Amino acid sequence: MTSKTAKSTHPANGPRLVVFVVCRNIVLLDLVGPQVFSHAPDPATGTNGYECAVVSVDGSLTDTNTVVSIPSLAAAQVQDRAIHTLVVVGGDGAIPGMQDAALVDTVAALARGAHRVCSVCSGALVLAATGLLDGRRAVTHWDDCAMLADCFPRVTVEMDPIYVKDGHIWTSAGITAGIDMALAIVAEDLGRASALTVGRSMVAQMVRSGGQSQFSPTLGRQLRDSDGQFEALHHWMADNLHLPLTVDALAAQANMSARNFARVYTQVMGVTPAKAVEAMRIEQAQNLLETTEDSIKQIASACGFNDEERMRRAFLRIARVSPSDYRQNFQVR
Prior knowledge:
- This protein has 333 residues and is α/β, with parallel strands linked by helices.
- 44% of the residues lie in helices and 11% in strands.
- It has 2 domains: 3-201, Rossmann fold, CATH 3.40.50.880; 217-330, Arc Repressor Mutant, subunit A (Orthogonal Bundle), CATH 1.10.10.60.
- The chain is elongated and about 70 Å long.
């Protein structure tokens, strides 16, 4: 967007207008999760930094994936207002929605005057139908990435990130990733302190960078260990990564012989105990690189790598980037 457009949608006084576009069968959390905007303090004024509006094509009551229906304004009621951030909400309705000319035209018209345009989850399908994602990087829920790529081949679909920013257009992965995207937008508009204040009020563990994966390693372990056989062990490992976590040490913690433990663990988890320890150390190191100012040497020690070079080799092998480059790309500043 041009600087003139940005100024016209960024009032010197008063809150920034955030418009959520909904259609039938939205996922309710795709709408209410990003309501981060409703509680973000503007340090310049001491008041809320945003005004939120929910709109549909005709202002009708909108069904959701819950028993709750959502009232909305007709899009025409905000058409002439200065929209700072436009958010297209996802859900099952996005699939027929991307073929709904009235909805696509409405999104395109509202986007023309917006300072920033976003989508949550499968809302990217509707956004792509406007042509706004052509030639851009984008993400959606992992289950819809193939559809986005197949239906809109001019979009560069990235399956892994929780959100992607390409110019003034932001897209986010499934459901709760909309919260992460909204917090990042608040940080960009109002400063990191404001985003952290909102995150704290929502009991969010951290303000996650967009480069993080929408595939949770912890959830992946829980899915593989569906009976919880190694759940307690994994919690203990995460708390003791600084220790030399040998097979013997892990087996003793699991109350198993080393030989039997190594066999059963590999069978259940799909990786050897050594590979599991290394992956957890990488995860913890990534978290510390993103959220602290600790030196790489300190992080290597805290995560059990013993020295920087060993951590660097592990990063290059697993994350395909050095620790210093990872910090430069993903540190929340």
